[in-house]
Specification:
The chain has 484 residues and is mostly helical. The protein has a single domain, classed as Sodium/glucose cotransporter (Up-down Bundle). The chain contains 20 helices and no strands.
Length: 484
Amino acid sequence: MVNFQMIIPLILYLVFIFSIALYSKRKSSKVSGEGFIEEYFIGGRSMGGFVLAMTLIATYSSASSFVGGPGVAYSLGFGWILLAMIQVPTAFLTLGILGKKLAVVSRKIKAVTVTDFLRARYKNDGVVILSSIAILLFFMAAMVAQFIGGAKLFEGITGYHYYVGLILFGITVIVYTTIGGFRAVALTDAIQGIIMIFATIFLLMGILRAGGGIDNIMAKIAQTNPEALTPTAGGKISQPFILSFWVLVGFGVLGLPQTTVRCMGFKDSKSLHNAMIVGTFVVGFLMLGMHLIGVLGSVVVPGLEGDGAIPGITVKVMHPILAGIFIAGPLAAIMSTVDSMLILASAAIIRDLYLNYGSKNVSLEKLSKMSFITTGIIGVLAFILAINPPSLIVWINLFAFGGLQAAFLWPTILGLYWKKANAMGAISSMVAGVGSFIYFTITEIKFIGMHQIVQTLIISLLAFVIGAYFGKKPDEDTIKLFWG
């Protein structure tokens, strides 16, 4: 059943998002030449601490954080919350390990993408082409998952058909990202991060009120499903799988280009340090709050399943207007993930491939038009692939995350911190990592029950070290540029 009271807050929110895109478009139109590339794809390196923290977390949080993950927690209980909380140090790890050095290096080499960094570090066309292909392939899978999540959430809460939500959500995110570029992405991410926090608070309060308080809800869980109170969900979550999640959604986030590129765009060291604190708090609150809602909702609003759990809970426990505000929260998380991937996928084509291997002399007018068109086309392709959605978007998202980590983790980290890292090592790592990850995923091979990413990253690390041993050493100019 359609409820128009839910639609009003959402429409106001979308109008606000479009106004930010127009503001960002005016900012980017004032710069020229190489400045346009830096402005459109990385926002002129002007992010402060709060915006940096929010855009990092909003980009990392996605449909799986607000819809898919809590849906699994609804079924499995507190064991899945334990897995979700592994993501708490995401901002701290990313900014602490990569932040300062990558920011300094990216300014030296004028890098606006991860591939820019890899090109300057390894000076090899194969590395550039492989990284661009990996970005396009796995970003497309991740964006499809986000489009599906946004449309399903819209359908479940408002009552409109899935296609209506897909069209509304798709048009919004494609248009504002295409028009506004990175600055629009960063500003909307900051606002969306705030909305995510309030949406989580509203829904958590609603479910506690509907369930008669936390004591009453916990007593019902203990009575009806005591396995939900155990770390392994009564054996449904194996201990090796829990341990391997520390790699997939903990250490492995250092290999995600959509979060790594944030380390190139902040203003100064103070911004970096503030973002590490704010980001850690925000991601901890969001992951705990949303997954706790999933577990508590299993007894307050029983009978739901999978990706429909959070929409179903929201409709039951919240006033229609508050439900409309809440839907903006998960949609914010989803849009902030899609917009970041859209802008990076566009950068992979325009910056990393076309400007390096196509025409060298491109006018600003043609460059800006190509950037807008490319961003739009990628978004439309993701939209088309989401028309016939599979179930359980959390697994699509984790597949995309794993593929990106297999391709980028070791070339990024070792490129920053190991002087002997070279092109042969990077290419070997990318090929072995992505190839083995896809093979292990298709065949469902898991080493002692752990997620496939563990054996994948071990193989890709070994491939890097062996390749580096046999490959050509980095030249003195590269060593001086990165360590001088």
